[in-house]
Amino acid sequence: MSPRAKPPPRSSANCAVKLHDIPHTVGKAVESLGPLPIRMLTLHTAGGGEMMRAALAAQQQTNPQLLLLGVTVLTSMDTAGLHEIGVTSAAEDQVARLGKLAADSGLRGLVCSPLEVALLRRSLPADLQLVTPGIRPASESAGDDQKRVMSPAAAARAGASFIVVGRPILQAADPAAAARAILADLE
Q1: In this predicted model, what pLDDT tens digit does every residue of 1-26 receive, in sequence order?
Q2: Which of 1, 104, 105, 155 could connect to 49 by a Cys-Cys bridge, CB 3.0–4.6 Å?
Q3: Cα(45)–Cα(137) distance, rounded to whole angstroms?
Q4: Contact at 8 Å (CB) between 119 and 132?
């Protein structure tokens, strides 16, 4: 960038990094990202156990406090979407399979739809952190690319460790009021 050029504008929207590559590359990415002031980092469990173990080894070397989260099945996908890419299982079966692989590989957290939280709580270690995107206020219809959704209170009752609320707040006419409503739903 030339000294006179202005940097591109920063977006107010959050972005997420989801790592999915060969084990060596993911390990090197975790090494590079580990020193940053982040608490959680996501990687696709479909990359396999070897990839997750490489990420975990790099995380232990660079930032033992960093929580690696295995993304099971994106909340924008349902069973039909999985079939489209050659996965013949139902979404909840694929989440259970990938969640077990992630836990067996040493990950301490998963990203899953709130619809699978209860299933994972019954079958995986109790201390596993479950992060749930696809959170929508009960009064709001989905209306976007999220297919497997739940209200904040229902996700908390199901056993979610963390809920992720993006568009219902960021796209609200009054984001502060939308956030307060979600907090009230959780109480």
Answers
A1: 434 444 434 444 445 678 888 889 99
A2: 105
A3: 28
A4: no
Of 18, 28, 100, 147, the active-site residue reads 18
Task: Look up 6 and say whether it is catalytic.
Answer: no
Structure tokens at 164: 């992720």
Q: What's the token pair of residue 184?
A: 């009230």
How many residues make up the chain in this entry?
187
DSSP 47-67: G-HHHHHHHHHHHHHH-TT-E
Name the 3-class secondary structure at 46. helix
- CA-to-CA distance for 48 and 54, rounded, in angstroms? 10
Cβ atoms of 160 and 131 closer than 8 Å: yes
Q: Does 29 have pLDDT greater than 70?
A: yes
